[in-house]
Amino acid sequence: MDGRSARLSLVFSCLGHAYMHLFAAFYFVIVLALEEAWTLPYHQLIELWTAGALLVGVAALPAGWLGDRWSSAGMMAVFFLGMGGAGIACAFVDGPTAMMLGLATIGLFAAIYHPVGIAWVVQSAPPERKGKALGINGVFGLIGVAASGLVAGGLIDLFSWRAAFLVPGVVCTATGLALVACLRSGLIRETRADRAPEPAPDRGDVKRAYLVLLLTMFLMGLIFQSTQAALPKTFDLRLSDLAGAGTFGIGAILAGVYAVGGLMQVLGGHLADRLPLKLVYLAGFALQVPVLLLVGWLGGPALIALAMATVILASGTLPAENMMLARYTPQHRRSLAFGLKFVLAFGAAPVAMQLVSFVQERTGEFAWLFAGLAAIACVAGLAAALLPGSVRRPVAAPQPAE
User: Fold this and answer.
1) What number of other Cβ atoms are within 10 A of residue 95's Cβ?
2) Cα separation of 357 and 289, whole Å?
């Protein structure tokens, strides 16, 4: 029963990661259809996600607090049901104000996933394979981003933009009902302790790590959110010959970009298990600088390859980042700590939305946006160099009884 419960918990955690990123990204494709349907400019429509993006970050902290004190599985059920219901509601709105409220509700419930779901994965994984487990979980997150382009683009071309909200909303709600059924039947049970505890870090290292990670996690979030928001329109502007008419072609290219990046996150987790976490983290930022600069100025197949490289480098560092955060956080504060991380990471999203809107409105393109993101990656790399060095590998201990 315990093994089955752990496997089911991982399944729902991975599905939640996929759904969360799908719901957080599909509006960037839907907005291309709304430009025509509502005859409103892109920069005005993209700003409708600002409140939702803000809530994804701000609400992560109370969600993590509830996950620590109430129930991780229970919070995940609330996540599935609430986000699915909000997606269904967005399918029936008729104007910008109602759409903004619907997107804000999506953001509110989407905030639950990262502080609760990621802490769930860290808690259940064996110490020598935490990076791999986080990498696999991360793959599902980027599968969600990749699927957002295919799902939204396909449903828009086959039916309408309303279907792009409705179908994912129904699927997410059904998953929530399945999780509730598993909880009530006892198929999923919770445990409050790591499978293997780690030796306590030095208090000075904890303070230094947290100060650095507060900055780098915010900057990482700003880079990721800005790139995620700008890539669909960038492809629309520069890849019309490859993408063809409609939104499905853009969605398919996005799916390829994020699918490759997601698969490479497993490699990032593998490296985090075997190399110093600081080295993996620092290298990810350093390599992003030239890649982001080139994304700003190139088109055609080269742009697609560089966009893949950007996603690979950003996602490949996440297992190392999550392992460092878990390493320097007491077990009974993990969800709260991951909540803090995603307050920063997704709290950067409103800044990213305004930045993308500002640059596109004034230049009609995104070259200067990606140049600015390259500079941000450089600053983050310099900050990451100040992290504590290697830490001792945890010593396995018997798993505590339920």
Assistant:
1) 9
2) 22
Q: Over the Cα atoms of the chain, what is R_g?
A: 20
pLDDT digits (tens, 9 = 90+) for 205-262: 778 888 888 888 889 888 988 888 888 888 888 886 776 666 677 777 877 887 777 6
H or E stretch covering 244: none
Query: Is there a domain that residue 313 lies in?
Result: yes
- Is residue 390 one of the residues assigned to a domain? no
User: Does residue 391 lie within any of the structural domains?
Assistant: no
Q: Beta-strand (E) ranges in 103-252?
A: none
Give the torsion sign (CA, 73, 75, 80, 81). Answer: positive
Q: What angle do CA 55, 269, 352 make, to 5 degrees?
A: 30
Q: Give Cβ neighbours of residue 392 (< 8 Å, ≥ 6 apart).
A: 199
- The CATH code of the domain that includes 228 is 1.20.1250.20
pLDDT of residue 25: 84
What is the length of the chain? 402
Q: Report how many domains make up the chain.
A: 1
Full-model pTM: 0.69
C-alpha closest to that of 295 among 349, 379, 239: 239
Domain ranges, residue 60: 2-190+201-384
Task: For residue 41, give every residue at least 6 positions away whose Cβ sits within 8 Å of its Cβ, in sequence order, or none.
Answer: 35
Q: Domain for residue 393, yes or no? A: no
Measured CA angle at 6 (ends 132, 274), to 5 deg: 15
In angstroms, the CA 220 to CA 281 distance is 11
Calpha distance 43→354 (Å, rounded): 9
